[in-house]
């Protein structure tokens, strides 16, 4: 097959953006050039890859089957170009890992230490955790360290595999009362916690994180007074530490707290799972497999 990388990039952009015009704008081409690329690519593969649906285009079954493989080729080409530009030593296996806040703090450095004597080189890329699965599917990263919530689960994506690395419960967190004010070991102050009138610091309700947090509070029959809506976990924990309100956090999330906060015993609710997301066609690549195993060792449930 005599396709070109330009044709493959164009097809990937059309598939992602849904129109020839949008793809042209993203790639710096004219719509006519995009149309020519698609015509040439379809002639090369011998089947239709796109079908018009009103003002947009949709992938045919052949297009759906081809897209993840094209994205894998483009990701490999990008990594090769990066390796050449950076003078990559022979034999190195660069693996691009998408991370979010608490995962980057807790897992990246220990995983890199585990891989020090191997040929694998982890390259972290910050990715919005709500977009992690899409970034893996699109080939922008090799491994995505993401979050799955049983109460608001990730929708399955064709060709994307998920491995659970750690499962943890949320707890109510509040401003630190100091060691002298904490209850004796083995006791709980959950019953005395005033939740009805307290101000709450919560993520937006239209995100998977926000829905999971609200489901968790509903488990404890808590109807929170949603005073502060905050996306960033580190900001939430800073506000909790300052006494602005109550929040929910898991043990891993507490690594982002700029100041100590109290995780209230006896208030466990809801769950989240830290997961590794990979494309199925990369399963056999030793660098990807070694990276996922390293994160499993670091984050694995006790």
For the structure shown, list the relevant keywords.
302 residues; alpha/beta; Arc Repressor Mutant, subunit A; D-Maltodextrin-Binding Protein, domain 2; seven-stranded mixed sheet; two-stranded antiparallel sheet; 10 helices; 38% helix
Give the topology, please.
Layout: H1 5-17, H2 20-27, H3 31-45, E1 50-53, E2 56-59, H4 61-85, E3 93-99, H5 101-106, H6 108-114, E4 120-126, H7 132-137, E5 143-148, E6 160-175, E7 199-202, H8 208-219, E8 225-229, H9 233-241, E9 247-249, E10 261-263, E11 269-279, H10 286-299
Parallel strand pairs: 3-4, 3-5, 7-8
Antiparallel strand pairs: 1-2, 5-11, 6-9, 6-10, 6-11
Helix pairs in contact: 1-2, 1-3, 1-4, 2-3, 6-10
SSE order, as H and E?
HHHEEHEHHEHEEEHEHEEEH
Q: Give the biggest sheet.
A: 7 strands, mixed
Our estimate of the beta-strand percent is: 15-25%
Q: Nearest-angstrom radius of gyration?
A: 23 Å
Domain unit count: 3
Could you estimate the helical fraction of the residues in percent? 25-40%
Q: Which residues form runs of ≥5 with pLDDT under 50?
A: 179-188
Helix- and strand-based class? alpha/beta
Q: For this structure, what is the CATH class of the largest domain?
A: Alpha Beta
Multimerization status:
single chain
Mean pLDDT level:
86
End-to-end separation = 50 Å
Number of beta-strand segments: 11
Number of helices: 10
CATH homologous superfamily name of the largest domain? Answer: Periplasmic binding protein-like II
* CATH architecture heading of the largest domain: 3-Layer(aba) Sandwich
Principal-axis shape equals: globular
CATH topology of the largest domain: D-Maltodextrin-Binding Protein, domain 2
